[in-house]
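Replying to the earlier thread about multi-chain prediction with a worked example.

Input:
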Amino acid sequence: MRSVYKILSVILILYSLVAGLLNDVPRLPILNESIRNLYFHVPMWFVLIFQMSVSLFYAIKFLNHNQLKDDMISVSAAQIGFFFSIPGILTGMLWAKVTWGTYWTFSDPKLNGVAMAVLIYTAYFILRNSIEDEFKRARLSAVYNVFAYVMMMVFIMILPRLTDSLHPGNGGNPAFSQYDLNNNMRIVFYPAVLGWILFSIWLMEIKIKIASINKKIQEYEAK
Amino acid sequence: MKQSDIEMADMLRESGKIYAVIAVIALIFFSIIVYLIFQDRKIKQLDKKLEELEKQNQ
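Result:
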């Protein structure tokens, strides 16, 4: 019964792959058919924010209860979230090339913000690897996690809204949700987001299992 | 600009061959998922084995 969500995630993603290519989309200049990238590119970033929120939740839980298990979940979530930022950036670059005419532009605050967020979480992993003691590592990285999350939110959710941005929904550009994203697109977009989030939970579960096996082996060897 | 003037992949859909592409994408996705399911099971078994080993040694 516990793996029902895995089946659901596969069905939802499969549905978004098929319906995402077949259903009608608004005919917009510049975007043309590339508007369908919304179903595939944007969920990557929803997954990033979701997994980093999970990571933050368990980091705080660790600080409250001092259970190493929470630290294990926290870092696994951060790793999966970080992993999804790679296809997020790459697909975004491709999409930018065909619509904005360039792979990367430093005038868009969201691109720079995302690059900063990725660097901030890279520092999180480096910090973790540099501490030998388990509890010390867990506590320090949990504290840093709180800062990292706040910084990420400032860089990708707040700053892009304050200045001009090429991304919809930022700096005066119309958001998809206002009128571009019609109901026809919603019925594919929302299931796609949910599907990818569930899929990322599945990957996180595998990550946690591997981490717990590694831990048991280490304890075994220590005896 | 008239709505119908905007360039879309209408021909692609008219010819009907787009279904072949979707089938290919779906098949590749499906096979990756099946592979993932098997790996998931293997990890679960490893975890169980390790637990049994621990019990025996205690």
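The two ends of chain B are 78 Å apart (CA to CA).

Feel free to reuse this layout for your own posts.
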